[in-house]
């Protein structure tokens, strides 16, 4: 109960950048992963940040970027696109 002592439990982290075309399903995929359900979404303007903590002390931070043309033109150094 309460906060855990971080000295004894190391939390691992990963940042996930979700990029793609307009209406490709990036936000839908994120909500399916987080809530195990599909919701009606509206187009993302700019970006949304959402964190998911797993049962194994792993934190995933999702950066859900809108699919507008101006967002796809940004260059991000040192990133791997899959």
TrEMBL record:
Gene3D superfamilies: P-loop containing nucleotide triphosphate hydrolases
Coiled-coil region: none
Keyword Transferase carried by entry: no
InterPro entries assigned: P-loop_NTPase, Small_GTP-bd, Small_GTPase_ARF, Small_GTPase_ARF/SAR
Gene Ontology molecular function: GTP binding; GTPase activity; metal ion binding
Protein keywords: GTP-binding, Magnesium, Metal-binding, Nucleotide-binding
Superkingdom as given in the UniProt entry: Eukaryota
Residues that hold GTP according to the record: 20-27, 67
Residues given in the record as Mg(2+) binding sites: 27, 44
Pfam families with a match to the protein in the record: Arf
SUPFAM superfamilies recorded: P-loop containing nucleoside triphosphate hydrolases
PANTHER family: ADP RIBOSYLATION FACTOR-RELATED
Name assigned to this protein: ADP ribosylation factor like GTPase 14
Species: Falco tinnunculus
């Amino acid at each position: 109960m309460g906060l855990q002592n971080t000295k004894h439990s190391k939390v691992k982290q990963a940042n996930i950048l979700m990029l793609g075309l307009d209406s490709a399903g990036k936000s839908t995929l994120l909500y399916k992963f987080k809530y195990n359900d599909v919701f009606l979404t509206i187009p993302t303007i700019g970006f949304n940040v959402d964190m998911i903590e797993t049962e194994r002390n792993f934190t995933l931070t999702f950066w859900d970027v809108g699919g507008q043309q101006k967002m796809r033109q940004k260059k991000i150094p040192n990133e791997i696109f899959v």
